Amino acid sequence: MKKAAVVASLLVLLSCLVLVAPAAAKESETPFEILPGSFQMTPSTLQAGAHEDLTTSFDFTHTAAGQTFNDPKDTVVSLPAGYDASNTAVPTCSISQLVGSIGGRSECPADSQVGTIILELTFPGSTHATRGVMFPVYNMEVTSFGVTAQLGFNAFIFAQILTVSVRPGDSGLTVTAPDVVNVSEPHGVSVTVWGVPASHEHDPQRGMVCLPQPFTALVATCEGGGESVNIPHRPFLSTPTSCTPTTATLQADSWEQPGRLLADGTPDLSDASWQQASSEIPSTGECDRVPFDPSVEVRPTTNAAESPSGLNVSLLVPQVGWEQPETIATANLKKTVLALPVGFTINPSSGSGLGVCSPQQLAAETAGGPPGSGCPEESKIGSVEVETPALAEKLGGAVYVAAPFDNPFNSLLALYVTVKSPERGIIVKLAGHVELDPVTGQVTTTFDNNPQVPFNRFTLKLRQGATSPLVSPPACGSYSAQASLSPWSAPESALLVDSPSFTIEHGIGGGPCPPGGVPLFKPGIVAGTLNNSAGSYSQLDIRISRNDGEQEITRFSSLFPPGLSAKLSGVPFCSDAAIEEAKHTSGARQETEPSCSAATYIGHSLVGAGVGGVLAWTPGRVYMAGPYNGAPFSIVAITSAKVGPFDLGTVVVREALKIDPITAAVTVDARVSDPIPHIIQGIVIHVRDIRVYVDRPQFMLNPTSCDPMSLAATVDGAGADFTNPADQVPVTITSPFQLANCQNLAFKPGFQVSTSGRTSKANGASLNVKLTYPNAPQGTQANIARVKVDLPKQLPSRLTTLQKGCTAAQFNTNPAGCPAASVVGHARAITPILPVPLEGPAYFVSHGGEAFPSLIIVLQGYGVTIDLVGSTFISKAGITSSTFKAVPDQPVTSFELTLPQGRYSALTANGNLCKSKLAMPTEFVAQNGATIHQSTKVGVTGCPKSKKAKKRVKHRNGHAGHGGKKGSRGKR
Q1: Across residues 715-741, what is the average pLDDT?
Q2: Per the domain annotation, does 167 fall within a domain?
Q3: Which of 680, 710, 743 is the last residue before a domain boundary?
Q4: Is residue 967 in some structural domain?
Q5: DSSP secondary structure letter of residue 488
Q6: Longest C-alpha distance within the chain, in Å?
Q7: Is 339 within the bounds of a domain?
Q8: 159: nearest Cα among 212, 245, 94, 241
Q9: What is the extent of the structural domain holding 353?
C-alpha cells in the first residue's frame, strides 16, 4: 500500500508539472553564472560548538524580470569541516508524504521539519519571478544508496531532494541538489537549517508555506505556521568546535551546459561549465568554553608473557552536548598519540603473508571503486567500530598497513583507518604514523588532524592469532598505556590520560611466570655434516634455536670437533670494503646484487624470527673473510632483513674464527665477533631459529677419526633488559658428532730420515726427517694422530743445548723472545687446505714439571699457527725418544724437519756415523687407529768415498806383484 501511494503521488505530481510548468528558458547568449557576491553562509552564532541555525544563500544571474539566463541543473554546497548534523534528532519524512499534496503543503510530519527554503520562482502564467516563496525543509528517509542523509522540500510545482554526503578528504558535509526540475527558473535561494528543530522558537515557521496569491503576484503570501511538536529537544546541527576561520564553497551548472562529474559523483572542477563561488565564515570563538573530557581503554588479547597479541583500543569522548541542546557540544578530537607500555613490541611474525595498501589503493578504497581495487585483504590487520551521535547505527571500518615509505609520513610503519557505510556512503579515512623506540621497541602511534566529527566511542581492534601485529611483554606484571589527546578547540594543548591497567599474569601456554622476572634460557643445537664418511668433503649444517618465552639469543661461540676443517685454497676473502658496503644496502638490493663476490661464497643462512607458531624467515648468504679482531679468519653472514613488505636493510654479522694451535680445531669466538642484533629500526627481532648451511662444494672437510665427538656452542641470552649485564646468561650446549667408514681409509705415509756423517764436537750432528703422503683422492687416507721415534744411540741429545731451552712462560708469551740457543731446527709442511706452506722454527722449551725440554715446532702461514709438541725422553742407555702425542687431524702432502749442525745443535754424535748402520724405531698411529711399527733406516750423507783395493798380479815367474804395466818389472 505504501509503495502504491508513492507511485500515485508521483503520477499526480508529474501530471501537474506537465499542466502548469512554463516553458524552459532558452539558452542565453549570456553565460550561466553564480551572481557575484551572492553566496553567503551565515551561522546564527559564532560560539564554538553551539547548536544554532545556519543560513546559506546564493543567486544566479538573471534578467530584470527575474528570469535566469540558463536553467540551473545541479548545485553543490560544501560546508566547512566541523559542521555536524544528526539524523537522530528528528523523525523522517517519506517521499510519498513529501509529494502527497501538490498545493505547496506536503504531508510530511511537522516534527520532521528541520528548516526552511526561500527562493524566487516564475509561476505559470507569469512573466516575472515571485519573491519570498518559502517552503518547509524536511529530514527525509534515505532512499538513495551511498547517501548519508537526505533533505527535501515541496516547491508547489516541483519537489526537490537534497543529498547529504561526507567528503572523504576532511569528512565535512556536502549538500547536493541534483537535477533540479527544469521549470520555474529558481534563483535567489536562501536555506536555513535549524540547530534544534524541536525548539519552540521555530514554531512560528513550522509548517509555513509562502505562495503568490494569485499566481501572478510578485510577492508571496504566507499561510500556516505556529505548529509545535512533542519530540525531545535534540540538536540537529552543531557549529565547529575549532576557533579558526573557515570557507564554504558552491559549485553549480546549468541544463544548457552541464558539467562533468567525477567517479565519486563530485563536480569535475576542471570543466569550465561548473561555476564556483566561496564564502568566508568568521572564526568561531570562546573555545575555552568547549568541554573535552576523553578517556582511553587499552587491553591486549592475551594475558600470557611474550605471546602473539592483538589489541583492543577504545577512545571515549562523551558527547553530552548532543543530548542537551543548551549545552555546548564536546570538542572534536584532533590529535591522538598512544604509547603502548614498554615491552609491547611489533611481532616480526606478522610480516608473513602480510600485504600493504598503497595511496592509490587507499583512494580506490575510499572512492567506492570496484571490488579488488581498494586495499588488499592481506593488508588488513584489524577493524574499527564508531558510535556517533550523528547516526542511530554504529559504523564499521578496517585497519590497513600502509606501504612502507610510500605513505604520508614517508616512514617504515604507518596505518590507514577507513570508516564507511556502504548504504550511507560515509567514508572517513585516517593515516596514522607508527614510531618505534630504537632501544626498547616501544610502540607509539599518532593520528593527527582527525576529522572534525563527533563520536562517543571509537574502538580499534587489532587481530589476534599466530601473526598478530604485537608481542606481549616478556615479563609478568601490571601494565598501562598512555594517551596524549588534543581537541580541535585547543590544538596546542594535550591532555595526558592513562588507560586502566591490565595484567600479564602467566607464561606461555598458561605456564608460570618466569622466576625473578628473568625468562629461562634452554637453547638447543643440532649440527652435523650431510656426508658422514670420514675424511670426505661434506656440507655442514648448524642450527641453534630457542623456545618462545626464553631469553633472546645475543651471541654464540662454536667449537668444532678437531679435524673438521675447511679447504681455503682457492677461496678468496670478501673485502672489508665490500662488507662495509653491505651494511648500507637495502635488503632487496642485497638479494639481487650481493656486495661480496660469488667467489667468496661458502654457504647460506636462514633466520626465523617472531613469536608463536609462525615465524618470519629471512635468507642470507655466508662468505669467507679475512682477519678480524685478532683472529686469522672470519666468516660474514649477510642477511636481507626483508620480512614481507618491510625492508629493514641488511644485517651483517661477522664471526671471528680462531684456530687452536695444538689441535687445529676451529672456534667461532663470540668475544671478538659481532653480536646478533635483537632490535632493528625499533623492531625487536625475537630471533628463535638460526640455521647455517656451509654448502660450498669441496670446502668443508670431515675428520678422519671416528671417535665420538661433539660440536659445542656457548649461547648468550638476555632478558627483558638487554642493557643489563646481569641478564646475560651464557649456556653451553652440544650436538653429538661421529663419523663412519674410518676402516676404509688407507694409512701409508712415506718416511725418510738422514743425517750428515761430517760431525764434530763443536757443531754436533744433524738430522733431517721427511714425511710424505700418497697422491690419492681426498677421503681415502687417514691422517696421522701420533708419532713416536727413537733416535739411534749414535745420535744422542746434546745436553748443553737442552740446558738452554726456552722457558714455557717466555714461549707462551712470545716465542720470538726465546734465546737463540733454544732454536734447534726448522720445519716446513705443505697441506692441500691452505694456499701456502706452513713453516717455522723448532724450539726446545723447558717446563717446570718435566725432566727434559719438549721439542715444539711452530708452523706458521696464512695467518695460521700450529704448535707440534714433542715430549723428550732420554733413557739410561742414552737413547733419545720424541713423542708427538697430538698431531692435528689435518691432511698434509709433506712434512720436513731439519735439525741442523751448529753451535747449538740438538744432537751430537757418538763415533763415526759413516761407519755405523743407523736405524730409527718408528711408530705411526693414524686418526682411525691404524698403527705402523717400523725401523726406519737413517741415511748418512757426506761420508768420504771408500778407496777400492788394488788387485795383486801374479807374474809368469811365479812372483806376485802389483798390477801395472805388463812385464814392466821384467825388463829391469
Answers
A1: 80
A2: yes
A3: 743
A4: no
A5: T
A6: 190
A7: yes
A8: 94
A9: 289-506
